[in-house]
Structures are given as structure tokens and as C-alpha cells.
Design brief:
The protein is α+β, with helices and mostly antiparallel strands. It is about 30% helix and about 15% strand.
Length: about 150
């Protein structure tokens, strides 16, 4: 089994936990770096203009301090099944990069060890595992190891 297949199983395994127990914390705090297509999908629901910032490299950052505009009150995502949803949202909290697995320390499931069986599988395949700190923003296009 390949690393991305394992990641997909792990994401699916924690899906219910995310909105029932965690309350989609990752969608309520921090920021999300978006390309133009991803921004267009979310932009129609954004009420405050000061939550969008253009970065030096031309990409867009969406501040999630008030929560993602695509997040419903029950902590489920309005655009979860949309194939155009942000790549970082599709991949969160597990980012597979070459022979590395990057885990977001912002994810309560990771903090509680719910991905341990999957981590063991990646290690058995020879992958290195990195976990970001809770305070780091996560940008799939520029993942940093800790």
C-alpha cells in the first residue's frame, strides 16, 4: 500500500471525530493559503474583506480567525465534496511529500494519537514523519519540517 492510500484511510478514519468531538478546530483558527480557483470557491461566502491578504508571491491567504466561511454551524464543511475545494483542506492533517509524512500539530486527532497505526505503516515503508507545532500555519505548497 502506498503512503497516500494510507493517508486517505487515516483521514477517513478521523472524519467523524473532526466534527463531532474536535469541532473542526483546524477550520476555525489560523490561515489557509489558496490559489485563485480555491479562493473563488470560498470567496462568495466571505463577509469581511480584511480576512483576505495577498502574499508576496501572489498567492492569497485567508485568515480563519472567525472560522472558515465554508464551515456550517454543526462543524461540517459546505464544500467538502467539491473537487475544487482547497488542496490543503483535502490533505489536512496529513501531507505526503516524497518520502516524508508531515502531520499538522494543530490537529486534535494527531495530538491524541489517533493516527498511530497509520504512522507505524508509514515508518515500515521507510517514510520519515514530521509534526508541525500547533502555532505554525500550514501551507501544503511550502511544508517545513520541524
Amino acid at each position: 500500500m502506498e503512503a497516500e492510500e494510507i493517508a486517505q484511510k487515516a483521514r477517513k478514519k478521523i472524519g467523524k471525530f473532526c466534527f463531532e468531538e474536535c469541532g473542526a478546530y483546524c477550520c476555525r483558527k489560523g490561515y489557509l493559503v489558496l490559489n485563485d480557483i480555491e479562493l473563488a470557491l470560498i470567496k462568495g461566502t466571505i463577509k469581511e474583506q480584511n480576512v483576505i491578504k495577498i502574499l508576496e508571491d501572489g498567492r492569497t491567504s485567508l485568515f480563519l480567525g472567525a472560522g472558515c466561511p465554508a464551515l456550517k454551524k454543526n462543524f461540517q464543511c459546505k464544500i467538502h465534496k467539491n473537487v475544487l475545494r482547497p488542496l490543503a483542506c483535502k490533505e489536512f492533517p496529513i501531507f505526503v511529500k516524497e518520502k516524508e509524512i508531515h502531520l499538522s500539530g494543530r490537529c486534535l486527532a494527531i495530538k491524541q494519537g489517533k493516527l498511530y497505526p497509520y504512522i507505524k505503516q508509514w515508518l515500515n515503508l521507510g517514510y520519515k514523519i514530521y509534526e508541525s507545532s500547533d502555532s505554525e500555519g500550514f501551507d501544503l505548497r511550502d511544508t517545513k519540517t520541524s
